[in-house]
Amino acid sequence: MARARAEGVDFLAARVAGARGPLRIAGAGRRQDYGEPVAAEAALLETAPAAGIRAYEPAELYVTVGAATSLAELDKVLRAEGQELAAEPLGGLDETVGGVHAVGLAGPRRLALGTLRDHVLGCQLIDGGGAVLDFGGTVIKNVAGYDVSRLQVGALGTLGLVTELSLRVRGLPPAELTTALECSAAEALQRANEALAKGMPVAATRWERGELHLRLAGSEGAVRRARHELGGEEVAGANEKIWEPLAQLKAERFAAAKKVWLCALPPLAELPFDDLGLIEWAGARRWFFDDAPADVRGAVAAAGGQATCCRRPEGDDTPAFPTPAPVNLAIQRRLKEAFDPRGIFNPGRFGYL
Amino acid sequence: MAIEPAKLAGLLAELKEAVGADSVLHGPAQLEPYGCDALTMYQRLPAAVALPADAAQVAAILKICHRLQVPVVTRGAGTGLSGGALPHEDGVLMVTAKMRDIVRIDPLARTAVVQPGVRNLAVSDAAARYGLFYPPDPSSQVACTIGGNVAENSGGVRCLKYGLTVHNVVALRCLTAAGEEFEVSAADAGYDLLALLHGSEGMLAVVLEATVALAALPEARATMLCAFDSYQAGGDAIAAIVAAGVVPAGLEMMDGFAVEVVEEFLGLGYPKDAALVLICETDGLAEDARGQLAQVERICAGFGARDVRIAADDAERERMWRGRKAALPAVGRRATDYYCIDGTIPRHELGATLEKISELSKKHGLPCANVFHAGDGNLHPLIMFHAGDEDEARRARDFGSEILAACVAAGGTVTGEHGVGVEKLNEMCLQFKEEELAMFHGVKEAFDPAGLLNPGKAIPTLQRCAEFGMMHVHDGQLAHPELERF
């Protein structure tokens, strides 16, 4: 069903339709260093005209938001109703909703909340020909047509200029607390996964330099009980000190590092250099920094995972992403061709495409 | 257009060579049981049925069909409700029934690796010894397969809390239509092919193996049942429960007529003469399950709930659920045939949409019982009719189509969890405009350039929509706004 089109979208569509060469799409422009750089000749196309909250129905648990809206603004509107995004994006409050979705990475609370693509209900995008398309909607259950909305998450703006997103929201948890205990990386993986297998309300885990933090969230009773059963010392002010900086990429080691690896792994896989890392998601995501060995990517792949190089010092030519297997690559290329036959959106962003 | 006899003979010979003569069926008598899925109003025999036993045989079948340009329709248990596994008359129906191994379970990582023909419930049964289960629970879970669940992105009662299939599968090993193997995983950078394959109705790839996420079996469950005297009150109570931040593991409703039909069948003692009966279950740690149910009870009281019952034990809990779970068979006893519709609407539209369905029931002169996943606004109106009566069958289809149009008009969708299949091709023209449908065809071509996997399903051709005459939505304006659209 065609929805009323927000102001600014037609302007952007006309820019795309009239483009005579490649375009570099930018919201707040805060994540241009993630992935490979866009080809230098690309003209800047700012998503700013697609800003603003279009519809917010707290009782229906969704918000429809223009892609250029800042996370800070969205957060303020949702908190006023005692709600938050159902998925926690990885990114600063000064970033745009479209930006964190194009990157597609989730914050520390993935264990409780899932990832961004889990909670995208619908999207509006401008395709490579300048047509404005709507996919999905605002309801949770919807299997009409292929799931193009989820496909856009993490596509780094190469499959279209996303102008609007409908996202699931949820009520803030009634109770939260964080505990800390000292243990090795291997023991941390074991403890965190055991807690999850027992159904404990663990929203986030973080292990670094011999210390495991568990963020518990849920009802008062459940949090109290998990606190008792899982042990550790309660940490005051943990959200401000630990979790928010981690979600906003402002944790101490992110700020200082010249090289940053983000690794997705089976949670219990053990890497020989785990001790050097910051381990989240009960082991399913691990960050490594300047002191990591040269072949992080090879070691992670051997353990059944994937390593993305998020930041590189000047002169380091490590590719940002591993090249997909040939069949996957062929499919991805044909998808790109379908959405952007002229190849104008963010050329070069994935390197291999 | 039937397949040429010489081509069929060549196809059968090659298939028999690849999977063994016993695993290739042909001729009307052998093909008859495969003529439809659970949507029996569409029937068609394939040229042949092939029953591969392993990944190598699936690859062999696909390569043969690709070389001979023969369509392939993949079928799990055939429990689909939209004709997604309806055979192609010139094609091979590839049935995954033999591929039912649970390859391994990793209890601490909470994953299971399963073949596509493994039944949904078999995963939970096997995981139970580790205190784990596989959350998505489509009502056909005793029979339906994981491969089919991926194809349809199946939901179920628990998905409000635990998510759909797409939220519970972490990796897939697949074959393209050309028989090339590839893997997709939640860990992949780049395009999210894993998400795209969910709900793709067997048109993009064939699943060889799925790695599914398991969740901790809840320590406690708390269940209540109550009645409301109007659609509006019941609908508003549902919206209020969800808005309050309660996330039940089941939030189901039945209308008064559905209750009457179920009572006649089972005599469970559900409240009589109610507009709606609500069943709500919360689960998790004991503290969560009890606390959340108490909250639900308070909210329902505020909307005039009566006959509030809280299950005292597991036996009573089972009894409360039995009526909801037996609703379809109960309707099947009352009517010779029934047609199960699957639209989703925003929760606040529940009351108004039920009123609309009631009006449509009178207009078409066909009774309709409503059972639904109220928590996520997913309606399953059950239209009763006689399939033998051509006029009734036509009215049933029109009635269903008008319900779906009402769902789209209310801001919802033509299919929440059953898929488009062949059933809702026309209604897709209502929900999407030409450029969007063209993009769907582009996605299909990216995976299957030759168009051999389940051709003709899920996405209508632009020509079909033009003929259907509903293809004229531009900028929110219908071409003929003066016409009433249901």
Automatic annotation (TrEMBL), chain A:
<protein>
    <submittedName>
        <fullName>Glycolate oxidase subunit GlcE</fullName>
        <ecNumber>1.1.99.14</ecNumber>
    </submittedName>
</protein>
<dbReference type="InterPro" id="IPR016164">
    <property type="entry name" value="FAD-linked_Oxase-like_C"/>
</dbReference>
<dbReference type="InterPro" id="IPR004113">
    <property type="entry name" value="FAD-bd_oxidored_4_C"/>
</dbReference>
<feature type="domain" description="FAD-binding PCMH-type">
    <location>
        <begin position="1"/>
        <end position="172"/>
    </location>
</feature>
<dbReference type="GO" id="GO:0019154">
    <property type="term" value="F:glycolate dehydrogenase activity"/>
</dbReference>
<dbReference type="InterPro" id="IPR016169">
    <property type="entry name" value="FAD-bd_PCMH_sub2"/>
</dbReference>
<keyword id="KW-0285">Flavoprotein</keyword>
<dbReference type="Pfam" id="PF01565">
    <property type="entry name" value="FAD_binding_4"/>
</dbReference>
<keyword id="KW-0560">Oxidoreductase</keyword>
<dbReference type="InterPro" id="IPR036318">
    <property type="entry name" value="FAD-bd_PCMH-like_sf"/>
</dbReference>
<dbReference type="InterPro" id="IPR016171">
    <property type="entry name" value="Vanillyl_alc_oxidase_C-sub2"/>
</dbReference>
<dbReference type="InterPro" id="IPR016166">
    <property type="entry name" value="FAD-bd_PCMH"/>
</dbReference>
<keyword id="KW-0274">FAD</keyword>
<dbReference type="Pfam" id="PF02913">
    <property type="entry name" value="FAD-oxidase_C"/>
</dbReference>
<dbReference type="InterPro" id="IPR006094">
    <property type="entry name" value="Oxid_FAD_bind_N"/>
</dbReference>
<dbReference type="GO" id="GO:0071949">
    <property type="term" value="F:FAD binding"/>
</dbReference>
